[in-house]
Amino acid sequence: MRTIQRTLWEILVPTVMDNKSIRTSYHKKWDEKVRSISGGLTILKPAKGQWISPSGQLFAERMMPVRISCSENDIEKIMAVTLDHYKQETIMAYRISDCVKFLDYQ
Fold first, then answer.
1. Max intra-chain CA distance, the chain
2. Tens digit of each residue's pLDDT (9 = 90 or more) over 58-105
């Protein structure tokens, strides 16, 4: 058996773009990009959020928390992919845990 240690991150993904709900097929393209970097992700139920953007605009919308186990370098890549894919001004991710263990039976 072997164990692998990583960090667990959460990133907030928008559910609305250009005042329209984002289609599931569009989210699935993002999912594929994230899986190619991290190997996996856990998508949680949408939550309501409010924040002021860098341009000073108030946003009040639902977003999806997504948990990803990866390195800090990988989460920065995922943030850049997310920023571009969803055409956002800002993307936030935060560390949930410094230690995530996987136990593989080999």
1. 53
2. 988 999 999 999 999 999 999 999 999 999 988 999 999 988 877 777
Phi-psi region of 19 (alpha: psi -120 to 50; beta: other; left: phi over 0): left
User: Side-chain half-sphere of 46: how many Cα atoms within 13 Å?
Assistant: 13
pLDDT of residue 13: 96
Whether 46 contacts 62, CB under 8 Å: yes
Calpha distance 17→89 (Å, rounded): 12
Domains in the chain with CATH codes:
2-104 (3.30.70.120)
Full-model pTM: 0.88
Q: What is the distance between the alpha carbons of residues 21 and 40, in angstroms, rounded to a whole number?
A: 24
With both helix axes pointing from N to C terminus, report the angle between 72-85 and 24-38 in degrees, rounded to the nearest 10. Answer: 160
